[in-house]
Amino acid sequence: MDKSVSVTVIIPTFNRREWIGECLDSVLGQTHPNIEIIVVDDCSTDDTVAWLKEQNKYERVRLHVQEKNGGASVARNTGIEIAAGDLVVFIDSDDMLLPHHVEKAVAAFEQYPDLGLFCCDSQMIDVEGNVILDGKTWHAALSEAKRIRINTGFRPLEDVFRFSNCFPGFTLRREVFRKLGGFEQSIFPADDYDLALRVAGSRYKVFYLHEPLCLRREHDGQCSGIQNSVKTQLKLIEALENAVARNPESFGSRKPIDARFAEIKFDVGISQLKEGRALGGVKNVLASILFSPKQLRRIISMANRRIRDIAGASNS
Predict the structure, then answer these.
(1) Contact call for residues 95 and 138 (beta carbons, < 8 A)
(2) How many of the other CB atoms lie within 10 Å of CB of 309?
(3) 36-50, 182-196, 248-262: which has the minimum mean pLDDT?
(4) N or C end: fewer C-beta atoms under 10 angstroms in the chain?
(5) Which range is least confidently modeled, 48-62, 164-178, 293-307?
(6) Is 256 in contact with 263 (CB distance < 8 Å)?
(7) Does position 314 have pLDDT exceeding 50, yes or no?
(8) The predicted structure's pLDDT at residue 304
(9) Dist. CA 311–CA 253, nearest whole Å
(10) Is 80 exceeded by the pLDDT of residue 303?
(11) What is the 3-state secondary structure (H, E, C) of the chain?
């Protein structure tokens, strides 16, 4: 590993004083020595800024306070503008980097000169930092649900299109942003996925290391959490539509495209039904079948589970 490679870790934050200290400690504990840390506060109202200024152990952290609240994507782009590192790492203030994350990301960029984006797996934790999902990582759970195996290696556009990488620890060359642009707030909270799709569709490569090098915290305040599932899924559709429009030649056929849209339309419909939005829910479930008749299997499977649950409750 080239210890001289300069790396900037950008941490956008909004009302995360409860967890930002753990996040910063995880960055300060990295094994790579040449790291600049930038916190971009997006007009927090919980005294995050005052608290950070009082902590002597964070004196090397560059703190930038936005003039007005613009959202996480805008805060990340601000961080990119003032970053000095050759590589830029993103971690949200409620998540953490494990000690060797930056070192392993730097090694990947050294090995592959045309690499644009480095991604990794994440361990899942709760609000108190306890490991959840019986220790199953983010990608392990997603791969199991989708019945798609994911391994260490390059991920072409069609592969990234099938499912996204977990965001904590996204690491990019700073020059990528100059050539491809930054995060798009209008597509938030799918802005990270949109960025990965843009990199995968460019001359740069996306590399995934199948190793948990981050901790992703699950809680009710997440912008991409369960309570915002419909909005998140609709933004995913927008990101995917943009990817197809930009790089139609990268897809061998319509089959993987239709399958992906069918999957998300189905998820949107189920989320809407759970929210009591019956008309929209039914429309999207039916739309998923039009994209891919295979979605009928998911509907039948869910119906069978529901019947079994009702039968079990009536027998108890």
Answers:
(1) no
(2) 10
(3) 248-262
(4) C
(5) 293-307
(6) no
(7) no
(8) 60
(9) 43
(10) no
(11) CCCCCCEEEEEEECCCHHHHHHHHHHHHCCCCCCEEEEEEECCCCCCHHHHHHHCHHHCCCEEEECCCCCCHHHHHHHHHHHCCCCEEEECCCCCEECCCHHHHHHHHHHHCCCEEEEEEEEEEECCCCCECHHHCCHHHHHHHHHCCCCCCEECCHHHHHHCCCCCCCCEEEHHHHHHHCCCCHHHCCCHHHHHHHHHHCCCCEEEEEEEEEEEEECCCCCCCCHHHHHHHHHHHHHHHHHHHHHCHHHCCCCHHHHHHHHHHHHHHHHHHHHCCCHHHHHHHHHHHHHHCCCHHHHHHHHHHHHHHHHHHHHHC
Mean pLDDT score across all residues of the chain: 91
Q: Maximum Cα–Cα distance for the chain, whole Å?
A: 67
Structure confidence by residue, pLDDT tens digits, 151-209: 999 999 999 999 899 999 999 999 999 999 999 999 999 999 999 999 999 999 999 99
pTM of the model: 0.90
Q: What is the mean pLDDT of residues 284-303?
A: 81
Residue pair 123/214 in contact by the 8 Å Cβ criterion: yes
CB 165 within 8 A of CB 194: no
Domains annotated for the chain, with CATH where assigned, are 7-222 (3.90.550.10), 253-315 (no CATH)
Residue 187's alpha-carbon distances to 14, 65, 234, in angstroms, are 18, 23, 9
- With 80 as the cut, is the pLDDT of residue 267 above it? yes
What is the reported pLDDT for 226? 46
Rounded to whole angstroms, how far apart are CA atoms 196 and 208? Answer: 11
Place of tokens 């390059």: 154
Residue 103 in tokens: 């070192």
Q: How far apart are CA 24 and CA 264, in angstroms?
A: 35
What is d(CA 258, CA 272) in angstroms, rounded to the nearest whole number?
21
